[in-house]
Design brief:
alpha/beta; three-stranded antiparallel sheet; three-stranded parallel sheet; about 25% helix; elongated
Length: about 180
């Protein structure tokens, strides 16, 4: 099994009940491909808590017992509710990270109403951190990056951070306690 859960590509076929997509559409798939759609969690948009068990993109058995092979396979079968449209203006390779790091960072920012008047701290400038800075900045929040050293300060500011703090000095945590 070769994992892969940031999938962007072109629809090659659709089932008879598919309404949202057609052959040739540019689409993306994250880490889930199906859920029961019937339990209280699925009905409320919280499919990750599906009581029957959410079907993951790779190394999982779907409800029919067939394995899911992930994004490095020749094709993948996905329930249309777990597929998103990718606009023509966005390259497929640039869209892929948004299906993992993007949703991982966007979801909590949206949940906690990040925006003007909110202060957001992003811990670390890894892949998730890069995306979180851009989203929080675009939402209008005041963004502070916390990282071990000043090595990535210029990059953080270029990505939209308002402030950058090196955490190698332990007094930083005392000084910054509370505002986030």
């Amino acid at each position: 099994m070769v994992p892969g859960h940031e999938i962007a590509g072109i629809v090659k076929a659709v089932g008879p009940d598919v309404k949202k997509f057609a052959v040739g559409d540019r689409v993306g798939v994250g880490c889930f491909v199906d859920s029961c759609g019937e339990c209280e969690y699925c009905r409320s948009g919280e499919e990750q808590f599906c009581t029957k068990g959410v079907i993951q993109t790779y190394n999982c058995l779907d409800y029919d017992g067939h394995p899911t092979y992930g994004g490095y396979s020749q094709y993948i079968v996905v329930k249309e509710d777990f597929v998103v449209r990718i606009p023509d203006s966005l390259n497929l390779d640039a869209a892929s990270p948004l299906l993992c790091a993007g949703i991982t960072t966007y979801s909590p920012l949206k949940h906690w109403n990040a925006g003007p008047g909110k202060k957001i701290a992003v811990v670390g400038m890894g892949g998730l951190g890069h995306v979180a800075i851009q989203f929080a900045h675009a939402m209008g929040a005041e963004v502070t990056v916390l990282s071990r050293s000043l090595n990535k300060q210029e990059e953080a500011l270029r990505f939209g951070a308002d402030h950058y703090v090196a955490t190698s000095d332990p007094t930083v945590f005392i000084e910054l306690a509370g505002p986030f």
